[in-house]
Amino acid sequence: MSLLKKRRKGVEGAPEKKKEKQKRQKGTIDLCGYELMLENGVAQVAPGLFSQMVQFGDITYQCARKDTRENIYSTMSALYNYFNPDTSVQVTITNEPVPAEEIGNRTFFPKSDPCLDDYVEEYNRILNDKMREGVSNLKRQRYLTFTTKADDIDSAIPKLARMRNDCTQALARIKSKSEPVKGAERLRIARGLLSPLSPFDFDWDNLSQCPTARSLDFVAPMSVDFKPNGRNDAFRADDAWCCVMAIRSFGSILMDDCLASIVDLPIPLSVSLHLRPIPQDKAIDMVQGKIDWMDMEERGQKSRAANKGIILTQTSTALRYSRADAEELLDFLRNKNERLFEYAGYVFTYAASEEELDEQIDRIISTARGSALTVEKLYYRQEEGWGSVLPFATNKCDVTRLLTSGQIAMQMPFASLEINQPGGIYLGQSKITNTLAILDRLSLPSPMGFDFGTPGTGKSNAQKSVWLQVRMLYGDKAQGIWIDPTGEGRPVAEAGGGVSIRLAADSGQFMNPFDTKDVESLNEPLQKAFKVDAFLALSASMMAEGNQGLTQAERSIIARCVEEAYRRAGDEGTPVLEDFYDLLLEQPEAAARDIALRYERHVKGSFSFFNRRSNVALDAPMVNIDLHDLNSDMKVFGMLTALEQVRNRMYQNFAEKRTTWLFIDEVQSLFKHPAVIAYFESFWAEGRKFGLVATGLSQNASFMLGSDIGSTMILNSDYLMLHKQSTVDRDLWAETLNLSDEEVRYIDDGIKPGDGLLVAGGARMPIANELPKGRIYDLLTTKPSEVNALGGGGRSAR
Predict the structure, then answer these.
(1) Average pLDDT, stretch 328-355?
(2) How is the chain split among helix, strand and coil, in percent rounded to 5?
(3) What DSSP state is assigned to residue 477?
(4) Which of 221, 335, 388, 454 is the most exposed place for a label (fewest CB within 10 A)?
């Protein structure tokens, strides 16, 4: 009988357990913070209330100049003022952990060529080790969420779209890129706060396969305990220990880095600021009523004192200060375009264990205290706080206070800038957070760039590292060419399976300035136009006075002879310098004989190795063009000849859908002659259209910044790497780039080799770039003592 009862109890109890489980599941769904999510990212938060989310990028703020920071502050204040009283706004900053399986195991470079495998393994190991040092195991995101009231979702969508566009335009004014967040991403963000340690596998197809399924079923946690181990200041969501804290008070001076100091912590967290605008007339009446109450209190204090025979000349200090603050606030509201908001700030963090959670809470509270913020745990209100952290712009916890738009704008959502673009090149680590600086130059509007630094500051090592990474990362989809006046590039080229071409009297390797082998597919007039420009630059580089320009007559003679040289060669072959020289002597003008005299040493004698047909090809994946054995007069001629060969190769690479990465060391030598500068500017501008990613290296910037064309080229290039600068150049950069005092300190005499300031598009990041000793370090080093210890040129065999 007892056995029958047990069996009956088990059968009858099953529906009860099922009902209990359904009830529990329904309870967790109620915690999700929304009712309906569309694929376009519009969410119905409650009946008649709809929200949308915009993701916006970081900008350089903490290191910016004062006037730049003031402009950002004004823009953010105007952005908050834009929202009307029917709108709720939420600013969210999250530190999301990189998946655990990627930390220390990330493949930065794939294995694609046996000659590179050892370098690929070492570079992956180095970058994974560096990834653990900072907050590179966290992804930082920023979101702006806003709500609007509407009768239905169809009428809400255009209202939200207009608000979204206005917000995007406002953020664009401070160079913060923004875009709307789609529905699937909003669900992922919500899931990351509702069940932080659980995977999220969702696709809209999941819903279509099951008519009764809702997105809430994929987002909601399976279980929640708001009293784990009897605690009332934390909770458990599935396997995660969580805590919500509130920003309760501010110091007497509100610092603009108060949030940045918290967000820069290398721990998973989310900071949420809730803003609800108060109608301006209501805000003014509220403040005026407060002043009237204080006036009445002041009269009361004086009256009570008079009844005791005391003549009170002034009221209590607290009342005087409160009245002064209220009058200042009233002036802001009436005359300075300030708005009043109901404000609430929350910090959410989570961990896998209770002990780890408590440690993170202590770090957040102590860090906030250092920025004059009081952050406290929400006792007995973790559920309400948790609902307020979810990015749906609904504040469910009564911890609000009144702040003006200016006071809110002072709480900058911008922390330490990160440059971490998938598929990019490693350039160093942030000197502030140790975050890896990984830049995809191909994503920049203009991928062209420069690297400046005094001798021995690491610019050559930095760019040779980029050269090697291009080979490892892009493989056959890119070609790297180094124009090498110092003779340092051969080991890197050969290590990457490339070649080194040495132009010298005894090398037996020749480049013909007239060569057009790689541009035979271009139409003939275009080929000749390019060659005329090249020979104008070559001729100018040999001017006796160095910076003397070509006359119009000389330019006409050169163009005439270049075209005639090609015409006489016809289909039989390519002309050489001697053909050009002979044509100059045939011309009737005296100026032609002067030009021929300049070319004579390149046609006859020991310098005539440019008077040969080309016997080298730029078809290897890495090519080093060594000009080390040319004297100073010949180096510019050799560099221009090499640039012509690179231009020919660039067209062919473009046709084959390959990018051409060009590195030009001592690029300042090209800025001594007006015609050379004009040629180089044309080459630079033209290259961007044909897949050229060029980097010029220079010991100082004076040559370029002192030239209108050079300065324009710099400002039109979206990549700059500034290492230690001389005093003169430092002042020039501060003026040209509008650097702040703090940014100037990152390029002064106190920095180590490899350190500097990275400028990429609108982003600026102080970086350190120090590689540990090993195969890659040995390959890149240019220190004489280390090169000698490694056997000089024998390094390439390593």
Answers:
(1) 88
(2) 45, 20, 35
(3) G
(4) 335
Specify the pLDDT at position 746.
Answer: 93
What is the mean predicted confidence (pLDDT) over 626-643?
Answer: 87
Token match 């390019």: residue?
Answer: 530
Contact indicator for 262, 256 with CB cutoff of 8 Å: no
Tell me, letter by letter, the H, E, C secondary structure of 7-50.
Answer: HHHHHHHHHHHHHHHHHHHHHHHCCCCCCEECCCCCEEEECCEE
What's the CATH number for 100-136+429-511+620-790?
Answer: 3.40.50.300
Report the DSSP beta bridge partners of residue 90.
Answer: 145, 274
Q: Is the pLDDT of residue 388 over 90?
A: yes
Burial label for 272, CB within 10 Å (0-12, 13-18, 19+), is buried
Burial class from Cβ neighbours inside 10 Å (0-12, 13-18, 19+) for residue 33 reads buried
pTM to 2 decimal places:
0.79
Q: Are 287 and 329 in contact (CB under 8 A)?
A: yes
CA-to-CA dists, residue 637 to 540, 550, 669, 795, angstroms: 10, 16, 10, 29
Let me know: does 248 contact 263? Beta carbons within 8 Å.
no
pLDDT tens digits, one per residue of 175-209: 898 999 999 999 999 999 999 999 888 888 777 77
- Of 37, 295, 307, residue with least CA distance to 190: 37
Q: Tokens at residue 621, please?
A: 């994946």
Q: Could you tell me which of 230, 330, 232 has the C-alpha nearest to residue 280? A: 330
Residues 708-755: tens digit of each pLDDT:
888 888 888 999 999 999 989 999 999 888 888 889 999 998 899 999
**Locus of tokens 């957070």:** 433
- What is the Cα–Cα distance from 238 to 719, expressed in whole angstroms? 45
What are the start and end residues of each CATH 3.40.462 domain in the chain? 34-98+137-278+339-410
Residues of the chain with CATH 3.40.50.300: 100-136+429-511+620-790
Length of the chain, please? 798
Supply the DSSP string of 61-116, one letter for each residue.
-TTS-HHHHHHHHHHHHHHHHHS-TT--EEEEEEEEEPPTTTTTT--SS----GGG
570 pLDDT higher than 70: yes
**CATH number for domain 522-613, candidates 2.40.240, 1.10.8, 3.40.50, 3.30.700:** 1.10.8
Cα 38 to Cα 41: distance, rounded to the nearest angstrom: 5
Q: Rounded distance, CA 185 to CA 330, Å? A: 42
Is residue 422 within 8 A of residue 440, CB to CB? The reply is yes
Question: CATH number of the domain at 34-98+137-278+339-410, please?
Answer: 3.40.462
What does DSSP assign to residue 572? Answer: T
Instruction: Could you list the beta-strand ranges (E) of 580-691.
Output: 622-626, 659-664
In angstroms, rounded to a whole number, what is the distance separating the alpha carbons of residues 453 and 489?
A: 18
Tens of pLDDT, residues 605-617: 777 888 988 899 8
- Count CB-CB contacts under 10 A for residue 675: 22
CA distance linking residue 765 with residue 349, whole number of Å: 27
Rounded distance, CA 614 to CA 675, Å? 25
For residues 106 and 422, what is the distance between their CA atoms, to the nearest angstrom? 12
Dihedral angle at the C-alpha atoms of 266, 269, 273, 274, nearest 10 degrees?
Answer: 170
Average pLDDT, the chain: 86
